[in-house]
Write a structure and sequence with these properties.
Shape of chain A: globular
Strand content of chain A: under 5%
Order of helices and strands of chain A: HEHHEEHHHHHH
CATH class of the largest domain in chain A: Mainly Alpha
Number of domains of chain A: 2
Number of helices of chain A: 9
Distance between the termini of chain A: 36 Å
Oligomer: homodimer
Largest sheet of chain A: 3 strands, antiparallel
DNA sequence: CGGAAGGGATTTGTATACAATAACCCCGGC
DNA sequence: GCCGGGGTTATTGTATACAAATCCCTTCCG
């Protein structure tokens, strides 16, 4: 958690997201120690966290591998996230402060700007999107819920490097956010829950479509 | 997570559950190393797991304390558990094999036997109860779901040493299990979900009533 | 008397060496 | 030719020493 450990976490994570390693590939703690420039102790710490986020997995015999997400794994993850995040939206609708609503509006403006550039600034979109959802977790005032969601949300970004969003997808996402804000302003928990549900379910299908079955078609041998 | 680490985890956990330490009390890794008889390295490993299960917490400055659960914390936890476990019950209703149903019936028989002793064998009850729910997680065939639930379910047993169940509470719990099995036999996901929902919600109230507000009324100084 | 600054003691974080375990490879028997 | 055994290598697990951070108590100044 301190400097070396945190740094190792960030570097390994970036390494995984950069696409420099293939899903299913074996890693060793020594390798990661070399890459990160710290000793194995903080590396093991960082690896723990990444296992928790399901970016890394260990075999039954403790060997370390890059996680390989099947289509079903992804659907499962989105389903769980939907369940939890709908709950968060409902709670948030009862609790959001004016300032938080204003922040959501600001983030959504930013998000739209990112979309309307050509080409759309996907990184900026994803950042604003994440911040938007985090305001909601925060407003839900349920630390455990936030903790559970953190795990689920981290995972799918693994594949984002390979993903291409259509501008239509991004715009729909922004419209969802607008409607969520409307539901929040109206303080209507049911509305918020419903919008969040369809928002995430569509996100799942968009995700699957853009990734296709490409994530897992390499020969594991 | 090999021998020393696993052993440290088990010993520390037992130590916490034994009531030998008070909620909010500070612990040091050295102490735990002495208690467990292994070095700090595997202790740190075990501590991380226990932090994850929310039995231990760290202050902002990384010092280690026994977790202190407020009534609201407990309610939050039960709410999340209910949400996830209802989902698990629904999925399980579609997927349970004959063998798994038979196992549930066997566990429930065991559980009833434990109740009808005088005094009721609460430890045996809790073990059978846990095993019962674990069969359901398993049948739900959603690894992530099982992982999330594992975290939530571990936590409340912290206080079980101080808790007294009435025989009526235990019998109602057994009846819930009977009805769950009936829902599973009927392969009715909605029924299973509904029963699980009321089962856990009642469990929450039973828990709060039996613990009272006694969990947190010690002076923190 | 209050409060801030300093310094020793406590506690956590990291590096390194070594131990234990698992994977791999080669070789011999059948 | 293939299957199993034994030793070698690769990889993870643990112990220990030391570094960094934090706490706490004392002291000194206002």
């Amino acid at each position: 958690m301190s400097r070396a450990s945190e740094q190792a976490y960030a570097k390994i994570r970036a390494h995984l997201l950069s696409g420099a390693v293939r899903a299913g590939e074996q890693l060793t703690e020594d390798q990661l120690a070399q890459i990160t420039g710290v000793s194995r102790t903080p590396v093991r710490d960082a690896v723990r966290r990444l296992e928790d986020e399901l970016l890394l997995v260990r075999s039954d015999t403790k060997r370390l591998f890059v996680a390989d997400w099947s289509r079903d794994d992804i659907e499962e993850m989105f389903t769980l996230r939907q369940m939890l995040e709908c709950h968060a939206a409902e709670r948030a609708a009862r609790r959001l402060s004016r300032e938080q609503v204003a922040r959501l509006e600001g983030l959504n403006r930013d998000l739209k700007e990112a979309i309307e550039q050509s080409p759309p600034d996907v990184v900026r979109f994803l950042d604003a999107n994440r911040a938007f959802h985090e305001v909601i977790y925060d407003a839900a005032q349920s630390p455990r819920l936030g903790q559970l969601l953190a795990k689920l949300v981290e995972a799918p970004v693994v594949l984002r490097t390979a993903r291409t969003y259509s501008q239509g997808d991004l715009r729909q996402s922004a419209r969802d956010h607008d409607e969520l804000v409307a539901a929040f302003v109206a303080r209507d928990p049911d509305w918020a829950r419903a919008v969040m549900g369809s928002h995430l379910r569509r996100a799942f299908h968009t995700f699957v479509r853009s990734v296709g079955s490409a994530a897992n078609d390499q020969d594991p041998s």
